[in-house]
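Progress against Task 2.4 (sequence-to-structure conversion) is shown through the following example record, which the project officer requested during the mid-term review.
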Amino acid sequence: MADLQDDLHTATELGELDDLPESLPESLPEPLAESVPAEPYALVADPGTSPLERARAILGVHPVADGYNGLPWALRHLPWYDLELGESAVDTDVPRLREGHVGALLWSLHLPEGLDGDRAVGATLEQLDLVKTVVRAYPEGLRLAYTAGQITDVRNCGRISVLLGPAGAAALGDSLGTLRSLHALGLRALTLTGATWASEAGLTRFGEEVLREMNRLGVVADLSGASADTVRRVFAVSKAPALCTRSAARALRPHPANLPDDLLAELGEAKGLCMVPLTAEQTGPTVRDVADHLDHVRRIAGAECVGLSGTFDAGTAHPQELGDASCYPHLIAELLRRGWPESDIALLTWGNVQRVLRSADFTARAAQLRREPSTAKIADLDG
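Structure tokens generated for the chain above:
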């Protein structure tokens, strides 16, 4: 836990890689999402090569930004591990991340069910401490990052970015002060489920205040597993795009975390991001099943609103040919066989996550000019 004290100001975490924050502008254009610069794109793969060779060429320029990885909790159960040379006890290590052309990934801080209150807050802090310890142990492979600019810097230096989150809503302990403290320690995504203020009934008044404070800080809302009422309320209230870090198409597979077509369409209108998980339970047993979900989400929500979520080391079975973090080229090759243009693949793997993170940063800068930190208490708004 001592490492947490060293990271209260996360902007200097990357040292020479830092994307130092600029001074705040006097005003920002509205809407903020339209002010976010687009990722540059150019054809990178020779059309005459095999789909797998083309996939690797594209991923060499537009690597995967993986929306969910459960490695931190998996490592807690290992007496010893080596992520640099390779670790057979888990699905994720540096060699396999490089083979899979993964450039960034969100490391989940989710906890086992049943933890709440102070226990959930403490366990989340321990998860943060573990992630930072692991990343520092492998500086030639992994680096912490907190913004879209830092992710790009880390990639340009040949490392893999680790973003902190999502954490569960229980990690806040119903306190906006705890949310600010977690953000100061690096948290960048929060799942809006499992709390009294974010339930099947939707967001309460306090829940909406949590969301506004997340917007002010730059913490992205994760809606995977949230009720339809919560999802729609987030789309209505939030000034920044939301993520679904582990959601596929319910029309193809009726899993509770998958999104029905009406919510996929609304997510597209809100410029959110549905990150399709590589799990047999949610998408099916083959790489073709995963590609079917990606096709469907792209058709309903749009090419700018679909992403990838490996969900490796999260305790789930994976489709054939997608068993660990090295396997992304096989999925991209399948999409190329289906006629996906390279521009859409570049958005899928890298560009869409960059857009969401940049939008969150722009929204936070604008909100901090207009809004002081909230002092609201759950008893005052929901009591």
